[in-house]
Amino acid sequence: MRAVVFSRYGDESVLELSERPVPTPAAGEVLVRVRAAGVNPLDWKFREGAVGTDRPFPLALGWDVAGEVVATSAADGPAVGDEVYGMLPLPHGGAYQEFAVLPASALAPKPVGLSFAQAAAVPLAALTAWQSLDAAHVVPGQRVLVHAGAGGVGHFAVQLAKARGAHVTATASPRNLDFLRRLGVDEPVDRTSDGLHAIEPVHAVIDTIGGRTQQESWRLLRAGGALITLPEAIDEAYRVPGVQGQRVIVAPDGKALHSIGALIDNGLVHVEVQDVLPLHKAADAHRTSKNGQVRGKLVITL
Ligand SMILES: NC(=O)c1ccc[n+]([C@@H]2O[C@H](COP(=O)([O-])OP(=O)(O)OC[C@H]3O[C@@H](n4cnc5c(N)ncnc54)[C@H](OP(=O)(O)O)[C@@H]3O)[C@@H](O)[C@H]2O)c1
Prior knowledge:
The chain has eight helices and 16 strands. By secondary structure, it is α/β, with parallel strands linked by helices. It binds NADP nicotinamide-adenine-dinucleotide phosphate.
């Protein structure tokens, strides 16, 4: 099968399109003919060596797939021919290739209203948003702040928080403020302004940025609130008493993808795909993702 792999850590030039054996599903796993693979910042961080693995080179990458089941070794779960989407378990990737193996429990039916490319944009980013809202125990009527609401995780987080009945504030650069309004954000805030100083204290912050953004988020929370950070660990030097702070690490979850798929098919969650590139342009996708300006998601098709 055709696969994008790399044999040393480095910049985009280490990515190579090569012929690899089709993987074999172990007990409980499913073999998926990959129609599209989502691109996440994790992909280029892994390629650069920032994420540990005990596997030898060449390493496969990519964690989001949408495609058709071609074989299964699972007693339960999808059947051969089903159209599915799902996230591979961390840290070992394998979505930038014609066939991928996933645990049956990581898969859900592809939302009927989405193309394969749109469906591949969903799993890792939407599950991160979903699990972050769970970790913050967001309930109807609470106020949620999402940093970088126009990004991959951010655009799902704002919509999923709205679907849970929250009042949503989100930051973005000026070019994305209308996009945030279209997603249903109640208070879009220009991240180049000092607009966050004026917001009411929130119950939850979803921090997709880290660094100073994380440090400055503590004072935006009300007592009993939760700071959920994604790119890096909590910086203990800035922790504030009376507020929960934790890093969420996303995990595959087919059941949650079922629920997210229902929200998508009911028109409550929109999937924004900025660009779709062929497999041999994976390096371009990584370059664009690393630039940090992507609205929604990038996707690779096979
Ligand atoms: N812990 C986990 O399990 C987990 C899971 C998923 C993602 N992550 C991490 O979370 C981060 C976000 O992931 P993602 O997929 O949402 O990334 P992304 O899609 O690449 O985010 C892009 C967005 O970030 C905004 N942005 C760029 N630079 C910014 C800055 N300096 N300040 C504020 N906003 C900025 C841009 O919007 P504007 O131009 O409108 O600001 C852009 O739309 C990444 O570091 C990723 O590795 C962690």
